[in-house]
Amino acid sequence: MILSKNKAFKLYKFLTANVITHLISNWKLSITLEVINYYRNHELGTSKVAAKFNIERSLVYSWYRKYKNEGIVGLRTKAKGRPRKTMNNKKVKRSSLTPTEKEQYQQTIADLKAQLAHERMKNEILKKLRALRQQEDKNKPK
Predict the structure, then answer these.
(1) In the structure, what pLDDT confidence band is assigned to residue 21 with cuts at 50, 70 and 90?
(2) What's the CA gap between 72 and 79, in Å, rounded?
(3) For residue 55, with 0-12 CB atoms within 10 Å meaning exposed, 13-18 middle and 19 or more buried, which class applies?
(4) What is the CA angle 77-80-86, rounded to 5?
């Protein structure tokens, strides 16, 4: 089977894009925050956000759900596999994860950006409502 250069390039681009997204299992915190902030601020569906960032739709939703439930701490990469055995066979209590100072700042910034985007949308809606009311008042017969 012989492919033209254009078709071969499209096939190469498709395969590399899909393979790369499946190979990356440890995403950087900055990338996940960027995806979540985009999802929160632009009021788009997970499929459109996933298409923009070239990742799977389920990944966007799972990141958002973790962020919503646990905050920025939930987005940290977690150790995988069987936990290490302790010398004295006592169960080690897992303390709840507390965010670092940098993560607290990132959480606050992300929340404030989302709040600002929400307030801007409300402001635009109110402007349009005011313009519609003024137009209705002009069109009313006296």
Answers:
(1) very low
(2) 17
(3) buried
(4) 115
What H or E segment, with its residue span, contains residue 43? none
Full DSSP string of 50-109? HHHHTS-HHHHHHHHHHHHHHGGGGGS----SSPPPPTT-PPPPPPPP---HHHHHHHHH
Give the pair of three-digit tokens for residue 129.
């409502």
Convert the pLDDT of each residue in 27-77 to its tens digit: 677 788 888 888 888 878 888 888 888 888 888 888 889 888 888 887 777
Assign 110 to helix, strand or coil: helix
Q: pLDDT higher for 59 or 93?
A: 59
Half-sphere exposure for 39 (CA within 13 Å, toward CB): 26
The answer to whether the pTM exceeds 0.85 is: no
